[in-house]
UniProtKB/TrEMBL annotation, chain A:
Keywords: Membrane, Transmembrane, Transmembrane helix. The keyword Cell cycle does not apply. The chain crosses the membrane at residues 6-26, 38-58, 64-84, 91-108. It comes from the Bacteria. Pfam families: AzlD. The keyword Membrane applies. InterPro entries: Brnchd-chn_aa_trnsp_AzlD. This is AzlD domain-containing protein.
UniProtKB/TrEMBL annotation, chain B:
The lineage of its organism: Bacteria, Bacillati, Bacillota, Bacilli, Bacillales. Belongs to the AzlC family. This is Branched-chain amino acid ABC transporter permease. It comes from the Bacteria. The chain crosses the membrane at residues 21-40, 60-86, 134-161, 167-185, 192-209, 215-231. One of its GO terms (biological process) is L-valine transmembrane transport. Keywords: Cell membrane, Membrane, Transmembrane, Transmembrane helix, Transport. GO terms for cellular component: plasma membrane. The keyword Nucleus does not apply. Its main location: membrane. It is a multi-pass membrane protein. It comes from Pullulanibacillus camelliae. InterPro entries: Brnchd-chn_aa_trnsp_permease (IPR011606). It holds the Pfam family AzlC. It is found in: Cell membrane.
Amino acid sequence: MSNILWIIIGMGVVTYLPRLLPMVVLKSKIIPPFVQAVLTNVPYAVLGALIIPSVFIIHTGSLLHITVNDFLFGLIGGGVAFITAFLEWNITWVVLSSIAVLVVYHLFV
Amino acid sequence: MLSYQEADQKPTHLLNKGIKSGIPIAIGYVPIALTFGLIAKTTGLNLADTVGMSLFVYAGAAQFMALQMLAAGTTGVEIVLATFIINIRHFLMTASLSERLHEKSLLKRAFVAYGITDETFSVASLQKGEIKALYMAGLLLMAYGSWVVFSGLGFLIGAALPEVLKSSMSIALYAMFIGLIVPSLKKQRKVIALFSIAAVLSALFSLWLSSGWSIVLATVISCVGVEAMIYRKSKSVVGEKHHE
């Protein structure tokens, strides 16, 4: 077997383990209420951490090398998503309208 | 006649609901998977390795990192270790989702676990009510399908998508994340606190740490911190009442 195949298998195993373990171990309901509450909080916090700072550095990848163009790209695309989401549009339309506005923006810049 | 709730639980309905919720993820994965396929080719992988990595690893950030490390001549052990570290955040997400997954069968839970990504987790968690394996299957069909198919297409016809469209489409997943969180931000002050504290910390940590670690740390501190504040407040309220 080639080296790359082993790497893929190894990567697959170490990626699946963190996904699998909590799912089978936490099946029994013996988790203390405080921990349960903390786990319920995860989606809201993780979205904050996933969006910021990444949305402003989509093309450069690091806050240390942030450029005006990249910042504006994220601000406009994210801004359109924020407004359409605030108006409670269906998420697919939120996504498509952000893309559409950025395509138009690209044509002018 | 089925009651509303029973109709809601019908297998085809659950699957369809998952597929529908998966559409924005499928769109969002297109530019990333295409780019992955293209870079994999230039790194020297063949088509089978490229599609195989998307099939068996199914983790965007880790796959890009692996390509970078392969190009730099890093050893396999280091690549696997780095993959583990970058994906530890899924532990947190699966632990949270596990609480809400109404499924007893271990096999089904193991199947659902395979499909957990930043995106599927966010979409599933922010929908109301209990989460069933069939809903997750629909979600996975769209997300996994898009990721695998477009990785292959990226290898074969990587440069086909116009640059303007590809660049603009790179906003898609962030637009989806924003679309998911905003309705909740409108309703609850606790959500605003959780979101903003994690956002500020993640930006701060990203200056020193890799994105995997900064996401995990920011999330944990925000979740525990906000819950601890609420807990202390509720205790002091009880304490004051006790004094009266």
